[in-house]
Amino acid sequence: MAGRPNILFIMSDDHAAHAVSAYGSRINQTPNLDRIAAGGVRMDSAFCTNSICAPSRAAILTGTYNHINGVTTLDTPLDNSQWTFVDSLADNGWQTALFGKWHLGHSASAQPRMFDRWRVLPGQGHYHNPVFIDSEKGIDEVGGYVTDLITDDCIDWLDQRNTDEPFALFCHHKAAHRHWEPDARHFSMYDDVEIPYPETFHDDLTGRADVIQSVKMHMLDLDPVMDLKSKVPEGLTRAEEIDWRYQRYIKDYLRVVASLDDNVGRLLDYLDDNGLSQNTIVIYTSDQGFFLGDHGWFDKRLMYEESLSMPLLIRYPDVIQPATTCDDIVVNVDFGPTLLDFCGLDIPAHVQGRSFACQINQHPAEDWPESMYYRYWMHNDGAHACPAHFGVRTKHHKLICYYNDPLDQPGAQGPASPVEWELFDLENDPLEVNNLYHAPGSAMLVSQLKQELVRLQTQVKDTAPFEIAE
Ligand code: CA
C-alpha cells in the first residue's frame, strides 16, 4: 500500500444510492459520481447504523455506535473531546479541513475542533446566500448557491495548502437535504418529463407493523409551501394529488443532486489538473439513504433498504482496481478505520469499526461480518412519527424490532406502545413488502435472527429495553 495518500472525503446529505446512476438509478444521471465508481469500487452493501443526520456523522467521525459516542438523536450534540479518526490524521502530519455541513452542535465543546481549518453551515444552513461559521472569520455571509460555495472553499483551500504534506479534505454538502431548492442552472431541468415512479409507490403497507402505518413521511405529508413550492392544484383526486406531489418533490430533489454532481466534477477535475488523482483517496458517500417515493414515502429513519443503504464509492488508483464492486456488509463506523488503514496509521483499540480495506484490495478476511446492527432512537419526534427500533440485517434477511419507547432520549417523545416485529426475506422480497414474522414456518428463522441480534447487541455493548426471548 502506498504511503501517506491524500484524502478527499465528499459527503452529501440524504442522497440515496438509487439516485446515483452508478448504482443503476432509474430516475437520473450522475456522470461525475460515476467517474469515481469507474475508477474504483462501488460498495453495494454499505449501511448506516442509525439513519439520521447527526448520529450518522458522529458514527463516521468516532468509529463508534451512537450509544457509545452519545449522539443518539438530532438533539444530542457531539462531545468533541472524543477521539475521531481526523485526530489521528492530524497527529500524523495530514493537513485537515472541513467545509460545509457539520450539524453536530456549535458550542465550544461540539464544534469541529479536530480540523485545522473549518467553515461550516449553522445547523441545516440555507441553499441560497448561506451564512457560514468560519474558524478564522467567525460569522460570514456570502452570496451564491451553497453547493457551489462549499466547493469553492474546498478548491481555495487546496490551492493554498502546503504541497509538501498530505491533506485530508472533508467536503460536506448540505444538498440534497429537505427543502430541496435548486440553483438557477438546474431550475427547469426535468420540466418536460415525467419521472418514473418506484415499484412500491402504491404500497399500502399491509402486514407491516402497526406503527409503520402512521409515520408522517407520505407524499401527503410534504408541505406544499416549503417542500413543493406551490399550492396544490384544485380539482385533483387523491391519487392524482399524490402523483402531482411526487413529481414536484422528486424533480427538485434531482435538480439539487444534479448540482451536487457538477460540483463533484469540479473537484475531480482539480485533482486531475494538479496531478493529484493517483495518490488521492476519493470517497463519495451520504450520511444515510432516503425514500424517493418508495413505499409512498419521502425521508429516512426506518431500517428499510432505501433509508439504510448509503452510497459509497471509493477511488484510490494505487490500491483499488477500477470499476469493481464489493457486496460485503460494511457500516459507517468502518469508514474511519478503513481510511486510517489506507494511510498506514493505527486504529485505537476502543474503536468499534473495522477496516474493510482488505475486502476491496483483493485480500478479503475470512472472518468478515455477515450481519450488521441498526438502532434508531428518536421515537416519535412529532414531525415524522417514526418509531424507535433496532434490528439485524444479514445478507439475506432482516429482522426489525419496533420497541416503541422514547426511553427519555432527547428529542424522542411518547407515548410508548407495544413491541412489534417485522421479518423480510431480502432474496425473495427485496422490496420488503411481505412481513414474514408471523408467517407459518418462520419460527426457526426468527429464533436464529433474534440470537444474532442479541449477539450483535452484546458485541457493540448496547442493551435492549427488554429481554429478547430467543
Ligand atoms: Ca442526512
Number of helices: 11
Q: What level of helicity do the residues show? A: 25-40%
Q: What is the structural class? A: alpha/beta
Largest sheet, strands/sense/barrel: 10 strands, mixed
CATH architecture of the largest domain: 3-Layer(aba) Sandwich
Strand content: 15-25%
**Which word captures the global form?**
globular
Distance between the termini: 44 Å
Residue-averaged pLDDT: 97
Please, could you describe this protein's structure?
Helices cover 25% and strands 17% of the residues. The model has no long low-confidence stretch (mean pLDDT 97). It has 2 domains: 6-182 and 248-364, Alkaline Phosphatase, subunit A; 372-459, Arylsulfatase, C-terminal domain. With 470 residues, it is α/β, with parallel strands linked by helices. It starts with 5 loop residues before the first strand and ends in a 10-residue tail after the last helix. Calcium ion binds next to loops.
